[in-house]
Amino acid sequence: MLNYADEIQKIFRIRKVKWHSLHNLGTMTGYGTYTIKSSRESNDEVERAPKRIKRVLKQGQGVLDEVDLKKLDIDRERVCSITLSPLNVYACLKCGKFLQGRKENSVAFQHSIQEDHHAFMNLHTGKAYILPENYQLGDNPLLERIRLFIAPSYTPQQISELPVQCFDIFNNAYWTGLVRLNDNNNSSHITVALQLIARIPPIRDFLLLTASDKFEDELLNRLSLLIKRIWSSHLLKCHLSPHEILHHLSLTNSSLLTPKNTPEPKDIFLWIINRLFGAAPAMKKLLSKEMRGELFSLTQEVPRHDNQQEDTKSLENSHTTRRKIKFWTLTLDLPPMPLFKDGFDTNSIPQVRLEDLLTKFNGVEKAQTKQGTIALSLSKLPRLLILHINRFNRAVECPIKNRNQTIVKLPSILKVKGSKFKLIAIISHKGVRGTYSDETELDQESQWSIIVYEKSLEEWFEVNDKSITIKEKELLFLEESCIQVWEAME
Ligand SMILES: [Zn+2]
């Protein structure tokens, strides 16, 4: 492939000029410096340049001038805006439209003639062309920059240096990994789950290093691309639209999006983790090692004769069974809330220690279930211990309004079975007045946000669809946490 920038360098000699002052050689504002003589001299050079180079320059001239990064919206579904086909789609780099094909009479070809727009980039391959001539452009910094907008890529070295502070094309500062996902459709329960996946180092690193078309599961390709963009230092805008992956989720598992079911972020998170688990052997190994724990359940059964559990092993007598259970998350139950006649304020909300909730898994505490009396004991703890605080009872009327708002007091270091853990992320809930609720039906809808600890900055950040704010560590326990991620200390 012809290296456009190198060819230009060969032709012109030496005086430092910013890219944006290059006359007729493409707009590369703020992107490196190159050296040429004055524009008049440079035109003379073009005239004297070898025939092949002259052709490249003439065809490149003006075409890259027309590129308008602010018109590019790569968060959209990557389908042709005319045919709606996802195949062979190009972005017009002047107006931002997604159009199919580049051969004669294709949509993009006709667009180039009708609209007089000429620079196009294939959204899948990243190759750039001048249309209607169907001439492939060589590498140059502007095109490379656009390729990174469309599909960021990473090396292990770059990952080890994350996060970094950067600026989008509107000059807004942002930290990679701390990027808002727009919520246009009451989908915060999904976007926080996606954000959580982006914050779990082994999954994040695997997805950053895997090409976004390598999975057979299209959902994972889209997830991989979204995570790459959340951590990208080459964002057009410092917030992203998760539209592409939400659209795919709606096709794959529409129940996750149905507001009536009010699925929690935990449901989305587990659904995606299970998809990842089955996607690639390397991912399976990684998830098993980092996130999968084991516990035993000892069940003193109510006498019955239709035991269908296959992996059970009788101990003591025929009515006691011991099962090994693998888990991604441990669900913790809150003590029942007292009834308040006139509402309650923060001071009257009951509080409970996290360690007390974990006694559910000490092998001594017993719970009554339909099957009998069950005692649970942890046998293997994962490096990333994910706790789910069970606040919602879907069986009651108005489950959001009637949720359990008990405050869970957080230790600075959590000790479980001799291991020590530090908190790295929380998914937090807020009940807000529902869109259709009247005066007596407050707290009908959920708003979710993720609160994460950024080690290198030594700060906690709350990220939701509207803002990113620094949080006081000492006040985190006041959050209505529904998921907590604890990382084992070395
Ligand atoms: Zn166009």
Automatic annotation (TrEMBL):
<dbReference type="InterPro" id="IPR013083">
    <property type="entry name" value="Znf_RING/FYVE/PHD"/>
</dbReference>
<dbReference type="InterPro" id="IPR001607">
    <property type="entry name" value="Znf_UBP"/>
</dbReference>
<dbReference type="Pfam" id="PF00443">
    <property type="entry name" value="UCH"/>
</dbReference>
<dbReference type="GO" id="GO:0004843">
    <property type="term" value="F:cysteine-type deubiquitinase activity"/>
</dbReference>
<dbReference type="InterPro" id="IPR050185">
    <property type="entry name" value="Ub_carboxyl-term_hydrolase"/>
</dbReference>
<feature type="domain" description="USP">
    <location>
        <begin position="176"/>
        <end position="489"/>
    </location>
</feature>
<dbReference type="Pfam" id="PF02148">
    <property type="entry name" value="zf-UBP"/>
</dbReference>
<dbReference type="InterPro" id="IPR028889">
    <property type="entry name" value="USP"/>
</dbReference>
<keyword id="KW-0862">Zinc</keyword>
<dbReference type="InterPro" id="IPR001394">
    <property type="entry name" value="Peptidase_C19_UCH"/>
</dbReference>
<keyword id="KW-0863">Zinc-finger</keyword>
<protein>
    <submittedName>
        <fullName>LADA_0A07228g1_1</fullName>
    </submittedName>
</protein>
<dbReference type="GO" id="GO:0016579">
    <property type="term" value="P:protein deubiquitination"/>
</dbReference>
<keyword id="KW-0479">Metal-binding</keyword>
<dbReference type="InterPro" id="IPR038765">
    <property type="entry name" value="Papain-like_cys_pep_sf"/>
</dbReference>
<feature type="domain" description="UBP-type">
    <location>
        <begin position="52"/>
        <end position="157"/>
    </location>
</feature>
<dbReference type="GO" id="GO:0008270">
    <property type="term" value="F:zinc ion binding"/>
</dbReference>
